Each structure stands twice: as C-alpha cells, then as structure tokens.
Amino acid sequence: MKSSIYVFNLCGVFFILVGIYYGWHTDYSELVGFPALLLVGVMAIMIGVYLWLTDRRVGVQPQDNDHAEISDADADYGFFSPWSWWPIVCAAGAAVAFYGIAMGWWIFPFGVVIGLVALVGLTYEHDRGDHAH
C-alpha cells in the first residue's frame, strides 16, 4: 500500500504543477485544461491521503512485507455460483437499458424488465431446482 500512496501523491503533485504551468503558458484564458489538470491532481492527492490514513489504521499489509506469501493476502470474497447464467442475463439487461438511454427511451423499459427478471433469478437461484437448500 505504501507504493500506491507514493504513486498517487507523486501523480497529484505532477498534475498540479503541470496545470499551473499550462495555465501560465495560456495566460489562464483557456478554462478547460487548466481546471481539469488541477482537479486531476487534487483527486490523485485525495486518493493518496485516503490510502495513507487507511494504512495508518490497518497496519502492515502483506504487499508491504518482503517475506509474505501469496496466501497471506487471501480474503473471503463470498459465495458465488460457478454454474449460474444469471449474471450474464443481468449484464444483458443493463446493456439494453444503457443502450436505451443512448439511442431511444422506448428501449429502456425492456432493459429494466430484463434486469429485474435477472435480479430475481440471481437472488432465488438457490431456493429451487437442483441446487435448493
């Protein structure tokens, strides 16, 4: 985590300096690039500060230990069904809904219906059929 802190803070300082130079070079008349570069720098520093505060609270992470094993960073990610097709249907519903937003609002309800059916199927897939509990 310490390397991530350094990278984000270094990028933040770099973008702020480049933003100031860009503003000076354009006489602060171009009001898109100058604020955008400053905001990118501020956001990078915000992420670096968040990681620094988290690192102080959590302590030594396995990625900071030179003698750590891969299994030291293992975490419980939850239970996922490897045979389930519902996540693909859920993604298809989201794709249709976003396509409807971009191309025509009459398509959006079809995506919402597909997404709701997929969400219900994903939620209740272990309550019936071969894999019921």
From TrEMBL:
EC number, as in UniProt: 7.1.1.9
Segment forming the signal sequence: none
Membrane-spanning ranges: 6-24, 31-53, 83-101, 106-124
Main location: membrane
Entry keyword set: Cell membrane, Membrane, Translocase, Transmembrane, Transmembrane helix
GO CC terms of this entry: plasma membrane
Keyword presence, Nucleotidyltransferase: no
One Pfam match: Cyt_c_ox_IV
A molecular-function term among this protein's GO annotations: cytochrome-c oxidase activity
Subcellular location field: Cell membrane
Keyword Transmembrane: yes
Membrane topology of the entry: Multi-pass membrane protein
InterPro entries documented for this protein: Cyt_c_oxidase_su4_actinobac
Catalytic activity: 4 Fe(II)-[cytochrome c] + O2 + 8 H(+)(in) = 4 Fe(III)-[cytochrome c] + 2 H2O + 4 H(+)(out)
GO BP, one annotated term: electron transport chain
General function of this protein: Part of cytochrome c oxidase, its function is unknown.
Family: Belongs to the cytochrome c oxidase bacterial subunit CtaF family.
Subunit structure: Associates with subunits I, II and III to form cytochrome c oxidase.
Protein name, entry field: Cytochrome c oxidase polypeptide 4
Species of provenance: Brevibacterium celere
